Amino acid sequence: MLKWEIYADWNPWHGCTKISPGCKFCYVYRQDEMYGCEVSSCLARKTGNFNLPVRKKRDGTWKIPDGRIVFTCFTSDFLLSDADEWRQECWQMMRERENLWFYFFTKRIDRFMDCLPTDWGDGYDNVLVGCTVENQDLADYRLPIFRQLPIKHKSIIVSPMIGPVDLSPYLDDGIEEVAVGGESGVNARPCHFEWILAVREQCVAANVPFRFHQTGAFFVKDGKTYRVKRCFQLSQAHKANIDFRIDKYMVPETVKYVWKDSDYHD
Ligand code: SF4
Quick one: which atom of ligand 1 is closest to the CA of 16? Predict the structure, then answer.
């Protein structure tokens, strides 16, 4: 089990509407159901942690210390239209905490330009954006848009991978990382190892960092389907040892480290 103290989570709102095939067995919906949440998962609402990045402890230090990678809005989509009235405040917090790295993934990259703060320019230095694609159709729709956008740090997230994907036309120096993973949950659609290896080859050919993030619940290798328990989905992917240009912190190389090795434990 790996323990990472270089990360933090920030979910300013919770709940999301399904938008594409990758949403079918959305983790947020599954978690809400498991915990018996009374509010529908499709209704976005601000959380009690809305202003977490700018909160301080009693001693006056930040609750989230400088240097962390802050996984942002992982119980929704940061570009959800229902959250339009809240997002500007989030951009402000990101600007204020310039020594944190804010990393969000989105299936709504086509809304990006409508969601920006006025001082965005060619992007904030400390914001990383992952464009999620789950199959070829959505790669071919979202990635041409993504390529054109003014974002300083871009990654492509192929997850949940529900079919083979050819990313070759979209891989260039502007992509800092490709991360690939299967789907989790009891109803998960199977992910094939050969699809993952194909994306890896595309990344190696383009010299773009590649990371096999997780196997998903049903993993097909050499014609056999393996049921992988949730607790092993990350470690099994890690064991495949097929990452390319990814170091021990498993973040895009361009993220400037301020962590000490003592922050990192096996
Ligand atoms: S966009 Fe993400 S959070 Fe929203 S429904 Fe789809 S999978 Fe869930």
Answer: 4
Task: Assess whether 163 and 112 both reside in one domain.
Answer: no
Predicted TM-score (pTM) of this structure: 0.93
Report the number of distinct structural domains present in the chain: 2
Nearest CA-CA partner of 208 in 250, 253, 178: 178
15 plus 114 within the same structural domain: yes
Q: Residue 99 carries which DSSP code?
A: T
Pocket of ligand 1 (CB under 6 A): 16, 18-19, 22-23, 26, 28, 76-77, 107
Do 121 and 20 lie in one domain? The reply is yes
Pocket test for ligand 1, best of 17, 20, 23 (most atoms within 8 A of CB): 23
Establish whether the linkage from the previous residue to 160 is cis, with ω within 30° of 0.
yes
Mean pLDDT by 10 residues, the chain (266 residues): 71 98 96 93 97 98 94 98 98 97 97 98 96 98 98 97 98 95 96 98 97 96 96 95 82 62 52
In a domain, 230, yes or no: yes
Backbone angles phi, psi at 75, to 5 degrees: -110, 25
- Based on the domain organization, do 93 and 30 belong to the same domain? yes
